[in-house]
Write a structure and sequence with these properties.
Elements (H helix, E strand, L loop, with lengths): L20 E4 L4 H12 L5 E4 L7 H6 L7 E4 L2 E4 L1 H11 L10 H26 L3 H24 L13 H12 L2 H6 L12 H11 L2 H6 L3 H13 L11
Parallel strand pairs: 1-2
Antiparallel strand pairs: 1-3, 3-4
Helix pairs in contact: 1-3, 1-6, 4-5, 4-6
């Protein structure tokens, strides 16, 4: 199936009975979470990419919120990055990602909720044009990174948040981590790079994740992310960036 993003003038590719389908966008950090889970578990599926600036009506009929990811199999439709990821983990229990310990799951839920705080500040900095505002947001982002550095330090077994092997939260956090260097590309901020002296645990986490096959298979270089983000800022995102004509 073509990776090109389908827009308003498209028709929905007919679903195949019993075939799992992911509605996605190649640069969406939230869809990235679900794609990592699918890749980690080697779950057979097909992908339909959506032009999120020019959404097809048939996609809005599936998910009126107009957001990705969305999973579909026969008459089952599941939206949201955490709902889709956890459904996949339950239905395909091999290489289980959610911690068995209820307390650990609760702690990871707190870590997940905190990502939204970091993302709000991060994207605010990306779209800001005021130097002082960007500086303030960078100070706040440093506090968020310190929060995750401390949490990783408390989990001594490392290098992942899940310990010696990644758990679900590692795949929730990674899309934010992968995109973080875009700040230094777009805003010319050396401080927006990961400092291995200041954040040694996060630096080790990044190196370990980048060696994982599911991460490698879906990764984009920070320069590519920067090109896509710049398109979003100017109102002309290229959803088909890096695809052959």
């Amino acid at each position: 199936m073509s990776q090109r993003a389908l827009g308003q003038d498209s028709t929905c590719p007919p679903p195949k009975p019993g075939v799992l389908r992911l509605y996605s966008m190649r640069f969406c950090p939230f869809a990235h979470r679900t794609r990592l889970v699918l890749s980690h578990k080697n779950i057979p599926h097909e992908v339909v990419n959506i032009n999120l600036q020019n959404k097809p009506q048939w996609f809005l009929d599936l998910n009126p919120l107009g957001q990705v990811p969305v999973l579909q199999i026969d008459d089952k439709i599941i939206a949201d990055s955490t709902a889709t990821s956890e459904w996949l983990d339950d239905v395909y229990p091999e290489k289980r990602l959610q911690p068995a310990d209820p307390y650990r799951r609760a702690l990871d839920r707190v870590l997940l909720e905190y990502i939204s705080k970091m993302n709000t500040t991060y994207y605010g900095a990306i779209f800001s044009t005021e130097a002082e505002d960007i500086k303030e947001k960078m100070t706040e982002i440093e506090k968020h990174l310190k929060f995750y550095e401390d949490k990783l330090s408390a989990r001594e077994e490392g290098p992942y948040f899940g310990g010696s092997q990644p758990t679900m939260f590692d795949f929730y956090f990674w899309p934010t981590y992968e995109r973080y260097p875009v700040l230094s590309k777009l805003k010319k901020l050396p401080a927006a790079n990961f400092d291995s002296h200041k954040f040694p645990k996060l630096a080790s986490y990044g190196k370990a994740m980048l060696e994982r096959p599911e991460v490698k298979a879906l990764a984009f270089a920070s320069d590519t992310h920067a090109v896509f983000f710049n398109g979003y800022i100017t109102g002309e995102p290229d959803f088909d960036l890096c695809l052959e004509q």
